[in-house]
Amino acid sequence: MKRQDFYFDLPEALIAQQPTSERRASRLLVLQGTALHDKQFVDILDFIQPNDLLVFNNTKVIPARLFGKKMTGGQVELLIERIISDHQALCHIRSSKSPKPGTKLVIEDAFEVEVTGRQGALFLVTFDPTKTPLEWVEAYGHMPLPPYIERADTDADKNRYQTVYASRPGAVAAPTAGLHFDEDILAAIKAKGTDIGFVTLHVGAGTFKPVQVDDINQHTMHSEWLEVQPGLVEQVKAARAKGGRVIAVGTTSVRCLESASQHGELRPYTGDTDIFITPGYQFQQVDVLLTNFHLPESTLIMLVSALAGYDNTMNAYRHAVEQRYRFFSYGDAMLVFNQASLS
């Protein structure tokens, strides 16, 4: 298929710049085969059954954006992509000129880092050893809001651009489908007898990387670190044994479950994945997906199309635009059923 096949016209006014007043205040578009249902997010409880298993991504967004200057006075911006040791991280760096190895940067007039190398498009940065990179960003970093949110981060984003169950620091972008859940909805899900499990995928800035080739089969997918623990594997088996469904909360949970099923069955897995899910992919684990609305021509709308069917997905997106749903990270949600399980 072609990248242009996944284009839709999105008015800029529909790109959510702020979160809703409450996490649960968003809308929910339910896509079941060709059927569309306009709901509120709290109505998700009507579509969850007692024997189901909801799989959440428990990654925690770190305040990964740092502002500073070169010794010559030039302004720089660092975005940590991945912390790789107690003193080093791989970073994106924006400045008037790319810094060379050996360049020292002063961050927030508080501490120094040194550019010590390159790994492809990323810079290897060594931090002041008196603290770990995570400790430095926790003290001086800014929440890395997505590029389509055209404002500076605020203190409110430290809470709202984070799921209520986030526990494992490492992401530089939120698993946004989880932003709609509050503690009361989670309690209501458990009260129904529905199981809840967790995977970890540290979302990288590559999630915003556009597809630039016409033939999507030629796209090089970004890599992200994930972990599927043995306990989650057992939860999936238990849900299947009871006739329940696996409901992935977010495309990152899908990437975890499907990456850990590459040998035909779900197994514990820790490591990187560059899985690229497009129409024609045969899902091994996911029956239902909760997700937000994604960018035109993005790898994420391609994943949704693989699950729900291309025509169904594009029709749902046209409907969402017509009904003025809010798009992207702080936007509304979709509950998408695997078309294969509906037939």
TrEMBL record:
Q: Name one GO cellular component term.
A: cytoplasm
Q: What class of enzyme is it?
A: transferase
Record note on quaternary structure: Monomer.
* Pathway the protein contributes to: tRNA modification; tRNA-queuosine biosynthesis
* Subcellular localization: Cytoplasm
Q: What is this protein called?
A: S-adenosylmethionine:tRNA ribosyltransferase-isomerase
Keywords in alphabetical order: Cytoplasm, Isomerase, Queuosine biosynthesis, S-adenosyl-L-methionine, Transferase
User: Which GO terms are recorded in the biological process aspect for this UniProt protein?
Assistant: tRNA queuosine(34) biosynthetic process
Q: What EC number(s) does this enzyme carry?
A: 2.4.99.17
Q: What does this protein do?
A: Transfers and isomerizes the ribose moiety from AdoMet to the 7-aminomethyl group of 7-deazaguanine (preQ1-tRNA) to give epoxyqueuosine (oQ-tRNA).
Where does the UniProt entry say this protein principally localizes? cytoplasm
> What family is this?
Belongs to the QueA family.
What's a Pfam family this protein contains? Queuosine_synth
**Molecular function terms from GO:** S-adenosylmethionine:tRNA ribosyltransferase-isomerase activity
Catalytic activity from the UniProt record: 7-aminomethyl-7-carbaguanosine(34) in tRNA + S-adenosyl-L-methionine = epoxyqueuosine(34) in tRNA + adenine + L-methionine + 2 H(+)
Is S-adenosyl-L-methionine there in the keyword field?
yes
**Organism of origin:** Thiomicrospira cyclica (strain DSM 14477 / JCM 11371 / ALM1)
